[in-house]
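Figure-free illustration: sequence to structure, shown twice.
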Amino acid sequence: MALLPNLPRNRLAMKSLRAILTVLAILAFSFGSHGKTSVGTLEGIVIDAHGSAIAGATVTMQTSDGQHPHATRTDAGGRFAFAHFATGQYDLRAYSRGVYSEWAKRIPIHSQKPTQITLRIVTPAH
């Protein structure tokens, strides 16, 4: 009979312990390795048929399944960068003065070092 007065307190302690363990499990999942995404950088240059850099070209990047497009412009030296993107494979192409480059397909972004690429815009002969 001595255990009966402690029974409600033990139930409350067990419920509190379960709640604490649940919160700890959620926090461990949220801040653990399961929640981390590796990121990397893709950088490159846009050139013309003669190898000269093209300033102000628009470079479009999207996932290889055609989703999540992003765009940037080249600097005065024809260089561009897409930084802090999830690792994976991406498709890119450049556009300048009414002409597109060919698509560069399935270009990988790694977390260890930046991926380098050159996109060439060739103006069609008239």
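We now fold a second protein in the same way, so the two outputs can be compared directly.
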Amino acid sequence: MKFDKVDNKFKGKRCFILGSAPSILEEDLSLLQNDYVMTLNNSFQLIDYGLKKYQFYNVNDPVSYKELYKKIKTDISKDIIKFYPQNWLENKPHGYPLTEDFIVYNNNRINLFTGEEELLSDNIIPNNFYEGWNDGGSSVIFNSTLICHFMGFEEIYWLGADFYKEPDKVTHFFGKRKRGKRHFEKNELKFKNIIKNLSSMLTLKNKKFVNLSRGFKFTDCMETDTLSHII
């Protein structure tokens, strides 16, 4: 599938990007039934927790894909638009979906046009879908935000994106993930820089970019609100 199918097709629309933070189970996900929704990694399984439907799916971590590929093939319908990263074409994860229809995006740090390394954390934002995705690969939600931006959405909301591990609590709504806590702690400064840079970029383009996650702590990095208030 070519990105042309969705390139700038959703002007004036809003999209909710669903992460896997445990706080997402505190939300009434049925409120999203009339909106565009992108699920990430495990969050397509929120169908079991009140989510009525979603239109997009993105996974960029081969470890996550290895764990999920059987469920992806059986539980995600063919009409869902899937996004997978370019580097999978060279380094194929277990069960790589050669027979699936999906849109490829370039999540390498090298800009294909200039050959230069470009980093979101250094506030170098890609100008179009076909440039390098920089270090957006450090979290699938960063890639997904850029995808939604290039699809034309004028309001982009995060839900279940806490970027924080509560002591003695699970890292994800589906349970513990061994590298979850370490991943948050190791990359905290980088995450904060990228969030600030994405927020600044989208604000300059007159787009609304808001985190609705109840457990989000970096409130100085981007606008926050609640799902019930937005809906």
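Summary for the second example: The chain has a mean pLDDT of 84.
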